[in-house]
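Second attempt. The first submission of C1q domain-containing protein had a stray character pasted in from the spreadsheet, which I only caught after the job came back as garbage. Lesson logged: always re-copy from the clean sequence file. Corrected sequence (213 aa) follows.
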Amino acid sequence: MSAITLVLLAFTSVSSGLLLEGIPSQEELHSDATLQLLLSEVTRLSNELKEAQGKINTLDNQVDKLTNKDRDIAFFAYLGPDMVNPSSGTTIVFNEPMTNSGNDYDPQHGVFTAPVNGTYNFHLVAASPENSDPSHQFHLYITKNKPGSYVSYGWLDRTTDHWVQTSASAVLHLLQGDRVWVEIGKVLGSHTLAGHNDNRAHTCWSGFLIHAD
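This time the job returned cleanly.
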């Protein structure tokens, strides 16, 4: 056998070995296929989990809405002692609550805080006794969230020899945490806001949830 033939045989043998080493075995092929199946299954389960979580979140929101719609949110409170010559910007503290379902009205500070998003109704009735000052002016405002942000008002002006009464109402859409109170606005001369006396609640403040969002 010639030297050239021996070289060719050797080259062929080495080349065949290299080619065989580059071909994956049946075990390797099976292992790769299994891995791909597992990855596909993990992806599918992950997508199903995300979908299920989305449905759970939707159900939670629906339950919250149903719960909020059934909530009893209402208050009615009246002013205790008379307020004599209060200054403009003063919050009227209706410190004697008769109804406070949900405890969302604060009788210590006179502020109602909305517990849920929704539409609310508020009503104010205020009275002032006889006043000999003919230039007397006394305005009261239903206020939302910040001083001076008025939404409705009533006035007790120029009373002389008789009592005078006023009222104000508001229907407001509130977000959870919004605050509503009654604030004294324009004042001129001497004035008295009548409180609870002679077994009569002359000045009172109320509100309730009409419906939750």
